[in-house]
Write a structure and sequence with these properties.
By secondary structure, the chain is α+β, with helices and mostly antiparallel strands. Helix 13 (about 375-385) packs across helix 16. Bound molecules: flavin-adenine dinucleotide. Its cofactor is FAD.
Length: about 725
């Protein structure tokens, strides 16, 4: 359904109030004039005004609103009601309170999962099953003196000991609690994080940054063999937009903000980032950076690496950030690319400057039915070739099409169900599409109304060349509406012996069909060989398109009745599927990060256990209190070269290069921080022509004598 974004006077008032509140926070000058933007409001009490925290989704005690052993809000779930019909509870989503008549049959027919065979989860967390915290007493004592809030409550700790991998949730449902963090700490701002990291280094404590907890790469798991105290650094209270720059269309935001809050707050000012991963309700900006996330509307807005202008990260060696907020630099490899995807192993991302766009004037959904998956893929390839992909275009295979159909809520109108029947008749009988082969693409167009309508025409014309039939806005919109509730379905499955997971890859266009066919077939074969007694669901969809290839998601699930160690079987099958992906020219991951059990993720975890220090050992980023030294970066370069049969040729430092390194006075005095080149912002007053009262960014670097970290790297 098409929608226009318009605002009445009450909207304007709300926006004005919001802006004033942010501005009021900013007018508090920091005690230390050298502090960067984020420190301006931080009181180091860990407190926020009630008004600002009220508006945020994630409370400190997450388990007050979210499930401790499943996905999402506690009040929202799929259940079978007394009549044995599936329904979705709560009031938060469009599907909430609705009956889904086809779901029960689909579960029975697809998995053999019946109401008689139930495997309910342990309802309440048994705190006595949680091991007592290993507290580092001196660390805790010094932490107290910072007034940063912390907790060693069992629920807080268990909540932060996992992400949403199948094995993590399965264990929790069974009441099995492994190694959990010993302490949870809630910094309010960048300078709180600096203090925590400094204390962790001083007292040999491990830190694991925690954003939204939606990780699907096991990155939040605590290594069971770790004997030191583990502290989960929960960024959820670092959730403010610090400034919006309307001239350059950028916003500077604290890294703990979750996607839904970021978009809502920006929307109130007329802007958006357009970054919408399926987990955006709960995942955080820092998490997106740390995992190199990708959103469904990346065709217009880009992936996180395209959106990021500036990252500020606290490492055990000091703070890393570039000296300016420029759109591009050519002075060496981009340090952002070391940070993005580092999964918390290099440090804690505290603030990020992102590109923003005006909220699109017009949105339109759409869908296309294709006679088969092959033609659907050919169409997506042509759309990518002509570079006319809508904000989102997703192609579901036949199994997912049927699944989507099973999730249709009960229709109240006979007319609607009659129309549905007619459409089906038209497609299958009149057009001759085979219901067991057809597949569907959902579309989302955004932008200026005229352009959207033209764009739509272009995409539907291409689709027609590949046998595609326009299947209406409603089907498209329903597809996107399901995006946020689909994650809740795994919990229902697990209530009835069904376990499942998704994993994704990126693959060149000429390998897409092979990879889809081969991986799905391998899953079926492996399940049979490993003794799975019911046919598995093995399905895929193409979710993102690029010039040179696409991202493909695989979903796989099975009924584990009769298996003694279902998770082991599951992981073996998944491992085989990933091998198949690699053998077919795909990547290990497109955006979920280093997957469970891979050597990469094992290394990440080992490294994380070393107090979030990285491959960049001491001196390679910077010694405490100093900016990075060219010689240590050269050493890093040599280390890389030693492993690669390449002749990289590390340039000599130009004469006087080091004179270009600005060392802030506070750093020279020995504080464990190295900020490079960024001037603290002046507080902003509302002035005519100054962006309609929005918070303004700090002035850019003041002179040409500041060097970015990357210019240091090539020196
Ligand atoms: C249902 C579901 C749907 C998903 N859909 C998508 C999708 O569409 N696109 C996509 O890209 N991913 C998706 N994911 C994966 C996940 O949401 C992303 O990896 C997300 O970016 C993680 O963010 P988070 O804030 O939840 O991070 P967390 O899960 O809290 O942490 C993930 C990793 O990042 C580190 N980290 C977190 N915050 C920081 C920080 N401030 N500084 C340094 N390190 C930090 C952690 O230590 C950990 O290693 C999905 C996951 C689920 C469960």
């Amino acid at each position: 359904m098409a929608s226009n974004s318009s605002g009445g006077s009450s909207d304007r008032q709300r926006i004005a109030k919001q802006r004033l509140r942010i501005i009021a926070g900013h007018l508090q000058r920091p005690a230390d004039d050298d502090s960067a933007v984020g420190a301006a409001e931080c009181t180091a009490q860990g407190s926020k005004t009630d008004a600002s925290s009220e508006e945020r989704t994630v409370p400190r005690r997450r388990h007050e609103i979210m499930k401790w052993n499943g996905w999402g809000y506690s009040d929202s779930k799929f259940v079978y009601n007394k009549k044995g019909q599936a329904e979705f509870t709560g009031k938060r989503y469009r599907l909430s309170g609705m009956i889904i008549p086809g779901l029960k049959d689909w579960m029975e027919n697809t998995f053999g999962a019946t109401l008689q065979h139930k495997t309910p989860a342990t309802p309440i967390l048994n705190s006595s099953a949680v091991q007592a915290p290993t507290l580092n007493e001196v660390f805790v004592e010094e932490l107290k003196s910072t007034h940063i809030p912390f907790s060693h409550d069992a629920e807080d700790r268990v909540f932060r000991a996992h992400g949403h991998c199948l094995h993590e949730i399965f264990a929790l449902r069974e009441g099995k609690i492994g190694r959990v963090p010993d302490l949870v700490v809630w910094p309010s701002c960048h300078s709180d994080v600096e203090k925590i990291v400094e204390l962790a280094c001083k007292h040999n404590v491990c830190l694991i940054p925690y954003g939204g907890g939606t990780s699907v790469s096991s990155a939040l798991e605590c290594p069971p063999e770790e004997t030191r105290s583990i502290v989960s650094l929960d960024t959820s209270q670092m959730n403010r937009i610090l400034w919006i720059d309307e001239k350059n269309l950028t916003a500077h935001v604290e890294a703990g903000i979750v996607g839904q809050d970021l978009e809502r707050l920006l929307n109130e000012s007329g802007y958006c980032t357009g970054h919408e991963p399926d987990s955006m309700e709960f995942s955080s900006l820092g998490g997106w950076v740390a995992t190199r996330a990708s959103g469904m509307k990346k065709n217009i807005y880009g992936n996180i690496e395209d959106l990021v202008i500036h990252i500020k990260m606290v490492t055990p060696q000091g703070v890393i950030e570039k000296s300016c907020q420029c759109p591009r630099m050519s002075t060496g490899p981009d340090v952002h690319h070391f940070i993005m995807g580092s999964e918390g192993t290099l440090g804690v991302v505290t603030e990020v400057t992102l590109k923003i766009r005006p909220v699109p004037e017009y949105q339109k959904y759409g869908s296309v039915v294709f006679p088969n998956f092959e033609q659907g893929v050919a169409c997506l390839r042509e759309v990518a070739k002509q570079r006319c992909a809508p904000a989102s275009i997703r192609l579901m295979d036949n199994e997912q099409f049927k699944f989507g159909h099973a999730l249709k809520p009960q229709v109240s109108s006979i007319f609607t169900s009659f129309l549905d029947g007619l459409k089906k008749l038209y497609i299958t009988k009149f057009k001759g599409f085979d219901p067991n082969r057809l597949c569907v693409a959902t579309l989302l167009f955004e932008g200026d109304r005229e352009k959207v309508l033209q764009h739509e025409k272009q995409v539907y014309t291409i689709a027609a060349k590949f046998g595609g039939l326009a299947a209406g806005e409603d089907n498209g919109q329903r597809g996107y509406m399901l995006t946020f509730v689909i994650a809740y379905l795994r919990d229902l499955g697990m209530d009835y012996y069904v376990i499942g997971e998704s994993f994704e890859t990126s693959v060149p266009w000429d390998r897409v069909l092979d990879i889809c066919r081969n991986v799905k077939a391998r899953i079926v074969r492996e399940c049979k060989e490993k003794g799975v007694q019911f046919p598995p669901l093995s399905t895929c969809r193409v979710t993102q398109t690029y010039d040179a290839g696409a991202c493909v998601y695989f979903y796989f699930a099975f009924n584990y009745r009769g298996l003694s160690d279902p998770i082991h079987v599951y992981e073996e099958v998944e491992h085989a599927a990933r091998e198949e992906i690699l053998a077919n020219g795909g990547s290990l991951s497109h955006h979920h990060g280093a997957p469970t059990g891979s050597r990469l993720s094992q290394r990440a975890r080992r490294v994380q256990a070393r107090c979030s220090i990285s491959w960049w050992t001491a001196g390679e980023v910077a010694a405490p209190g100093l900016v990075p030294q060219p010689h240590s970066l050269r050493r890093f370069g040599r280390r890389l070269r030693a492993k690669a049969p390449l002749r990289l040729g590390w340039p000599r430092p130009p004469a006087g290069a080091e004179a270009g390194v600005r060392t802030p006075s506070r750093v020279r005095s020995g504080a464990p921080v190295c900020t490079m080149g960024q001037e603290p912002p002046a507080p902003v007053a509302q002035s005519e022509g100054a962006g309609d009262g929005l918070l303004q960014p700090p002035a850019g670097p003041s002179s040409g004598n500041t060097h970015s970290l990357m210019s240091l790297i090539v020196c």
